[in-house]
């Protein structure tokens, strides 16, 4: 399975990388960063590009080191130049990515979606893994992973998890009233339409949006 990690310089992205190696230890990983091109301030463009390239290269170094430290060897790195989420998605489609891993935001305020996360979830035709802090106890306890699925999630991803871990799978109806019950699960597979109706409800669990 191919996983693309949307990489910026952020401790949250580094935590997400560690979790991915736990959940999908035998996958092929793509470390990808988007450098936004400047259409104005032409004289600043060269300095801007050099600074951002350096920052993102350092971030990719940390992500790659985390992957290798946790046994991953099949790794590809790329810097993309563009201004749109679609530039990342075109890359993902070209390389037949199965899962795109993102964080709600690049800061520690994970209680709401940032603009980038909203956009990529809305337009992506590839499933998205949305990272949250719920992952830490999953790794620490190394227990049976409790998974809820709403609708018909991609079997390839579900099978990849079950190949490496014992799981308990619960099927929920789309009309399921969440309340506090989502906290019983480690991972929720949910269709995009249902997620986008009330995204903040799912930000305290690992969500795979398809």
Keywords:
210 residues; alpha/beta; Rossmann fold; 9-stranded mixed β-sheet; 7 helices; globular
Overall 3D geometry? globular
End-to-end C-alpha gap? 16 Å
The count of domains is 1
User: What is the alpha-carbon Rg in Å?
Assistant: 17 Å
- Main sheet, how many strands, which sense, barrel? 9 strands, mixed
Number of H- or I-type helical stretches: 7
Strand content: 15-25%
Helix content: 25-40%
* Largest sheet, spatial ordering of strands: 3-2-1-4-5-9-8-6-7
What does this structure look like?
With 210 residues, the chain is α/β, with parallel strands linked by helices. It has one domain (2-209): Rossmann fold (3-Layer(aba) Sandwich). Helix content is 38%, strand content 23%. It has seven helices and nine strands, in the order E-H-E-H-E-H-E-H-E-H-E-H-E-E-H-E. It has helices at 11-23, 45-69, 85-94, 115-123, 135-141, 155-164, 192-197; strands at 2-6, 28-36, 75-82, 99-102, 128-130, 145-150, 167-172, 187-190, 206-209. The protein has a nine-stranded mixed beta sheet, sandwiched between helices. It is globular. The two termini are 16 Å apart.
What is the strand and helix layout of this fold?
Layout (H helix, E strand, L loop, with lengths): L1 E5 L4 H13 L4 E9 L8 H25 L5 E8 L2 H10 L4 E4 L12 H9 L4 E3 L4 H7 L3 E6 L4 H10 L2 E6 L14 E4 L1 H6 L8 E4 L1
Parallel strand pairs: 1-2, 1-4, 2-3, 4-5, 6-7, 6-8, 8-9
Antiparallel strand pairs: 5-9
Helix pairs in contact: 1-2
